[in-house]
Amino acid sequence: MPETPSPSTTRDSRFEPVLYRLAEEFSGVHHTSTVTRCVDAARHGAEDVTGRATPELVERIARQHLQVLALAFAEQR
């Protein structure tokens, strides 16, 4: 069972399900603090670019970031 994600620094409950889904999806790959940071960064990036951040958009962006990080870590090994 994955570690429970720490609350996002954004403290917006709309993104808690995103944190839990991605923490489960990437358990064994990334620590939950990494997932939390990616979700926060995705939210802030979406807000900067589009002026708003929906949970769906944030999840897509954060998932892409986590996948790229996983590939980069795999290449270092």
Description:
The chain has 77 residues and is mostly helical. It has one domain (13-76): Orthogonal Bundle (Helicase, Ruva Protein, domain 3), CATH 1.10.8. It contains three helices and no strands. The protein has helices spanning 16-25, 32-50, 55-76. The protein is globular and about 40 Å long.
What is the residue-averaged pLDDT? 90
Provide the helix percentage.
55-70%
Note the gap between the termini.
25 Å
Structural class: mainly alpha
Name the shape in a single word. globular
List segments where confidence is low: pLDDT < 50 over at least 5 consecutive residues: none
What's the CATH topology label? Answer: Helicase, Ruva Protein, domain 3
Architecture per CATH nomenclature, i.e. the level-2 architecture: Orthogonal Bundle
Count, helices: 3
Query: What's the main sheet like?
Result: none
Give the number of DSSP strands.
Answer: 0
Sheet-strand content, in percent, reads under 5%
Report the C-alpha radius of gyration, rounded: 12 Å
Order of helices and strands: HHH
* CATH level 1 name: Mainly Alpha
- The domain tally reads 1
What's the SSE blueprint?
Layout: H1 16-25, H2 32-50, H3 55-76
Helix pairs in contact: 1-2, 2-3
Name its key features:
single chain; 77 residues; mainly alpha; Helicase, Ruva Protein, domain 3; 3 helices
Give a quick summary of the entry:
The protein has three helices and no strands.
